[in-house]
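Lecture notes, continued. The same structure-token format from the folding unit now serves as the input rather than the output. Read the line below as a description of shape only.
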């Protein structure tokens, strides 16, 4: 069975923003299944719009900003 976006339910989403990027912490449930945490990075383009990028490595500042969001997201799980 292929992935169906209509079955993906976003239960939580918060952002940590830096100067040129932000990290998005969210909780999803697919087809009423197990709730799962998702963490992504987005960079600002020349027009100020955010575009997806691989999370990769994080700075200490990013971890300190995201950790409270992860703890909050866990309460939704």
């Amino acid at each position: 069975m292929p992935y169906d976006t209509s079955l993906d339910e976003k239960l939580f989403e918060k952002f940590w923003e830096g100067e040129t990027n932000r990290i998005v912490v969210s909780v999803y449930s697919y087809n009423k299944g197990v709730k799962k945490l998702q963490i992504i990075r987005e960079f600002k383009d020349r027009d100020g719009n955010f575009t997806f990028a691989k999370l990769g490595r994080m700075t200490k500042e990013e971890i300190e900003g995201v950790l409270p969001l992860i703890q909050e997201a866990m309460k939704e799980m």
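Point for the exam: Residues 60-75 form the longest helix (16 residues).
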